[in-house]
Description:
single chain; alpha+beta; CATH 3.30.1330.10; Phosphoribosyl-aminoimidazole Synthetase, Chain A, domain 2; 2 domains; 6-stranded mixed sheet; 11 helices; 24% strand; globular
Amino acid sequence: MKSPEYKARPPRLTYRAAGVDLDAADAMEDLIGPLVRRTYGPRVLPSHGAFAGLFRLDYDERLLAHNYRKPILVGCTDGVGSKLLVAIQARRYDTVGIDLVAMNVNDLLCCGAEPLFFLDYIALHRLEPKLVAQIVTGIVAGCEQAGCALLGGETAEVPDLYRNRHFDLAGFAVGVVERGRMLSPKHVRPGDHLIGLASSGLHSNGYALARKLLLEDALLPLEKPVRALGEPLVDALLEPTRIYVRPVLDALRHYQERPLITGLAHITGGGLPGNVPRMLPPDCDAVVRRGSWRIPPIFGLLEHLGVAEEEMYRVFNMGIGFVLAVRPRSASIVARRLTRAGEQAFEIGRVVRGHGRLELA
Length: 361
């Protein structure tokens, strides 16, 4: 029945005319399919065209090393934040996917969990298959570094919500840890040493301040080398977040019979003062020694341009992306193992009696 209030129009409107291109979505699937399948192992079940990804927990004989008697599933979600605006301005999209994976799997790691699989959500103004393929290339690289499967994802074309060439990313990770080996603040005690693992730079935090200071106030060009950095600014700002999963899990498994590692902290927004206390019990403090590790040049440039030292430590990781609490007699042993695995490991402080805070000495 036709409404008398509206005059019928000849059929001519399409989804593409409204801003959504279904043909581009099909082309994108053809591009990213082979990339995604690179992350599959024997625990991923074939599910092409399904509404959800499938992942097995009843391990077979090939996966005995990953067997769990009392498995606890661990989940988290995160994004990349305004670092994406640097990628958009520079039109370089192949590294922010690594950031997306890193921000999730490094969080999972803090309770001792092995990442199992990852899912992504990409929302953008207009679906450009080659742009999305670059983003997914980075996500795949991050999943390979973390040893997890890219089990699925969603791409949303939302022209009314995002400006031209703008997009946002969200990630979701699921991991597993044996119940008896799960780390929590109750394991940390006074006397434990703190081992810091070097960051690759800003990682994915503090970009609202960094962009304002470097690009808006100082008007530094993205593509030209900056003497204080020894490289173009864009390379320093888009350096992907380091993924610590493999070396830290290796150390946890190697010392699991004699648990030497008591706590883990991913240094994200809030810096050392905001994240190290998250692995402490209420009756302990962490004392971190300034100068006990190398601070990358990007942080020196930001401080030189006007950020107070206290604010630097509150906003940025200051060159330490991950912290381990380790039994005092074993700190040097664990640090050497992490170094052999390719990390820069520094003994940066220790745990003392206190009230759940961090003190910079």
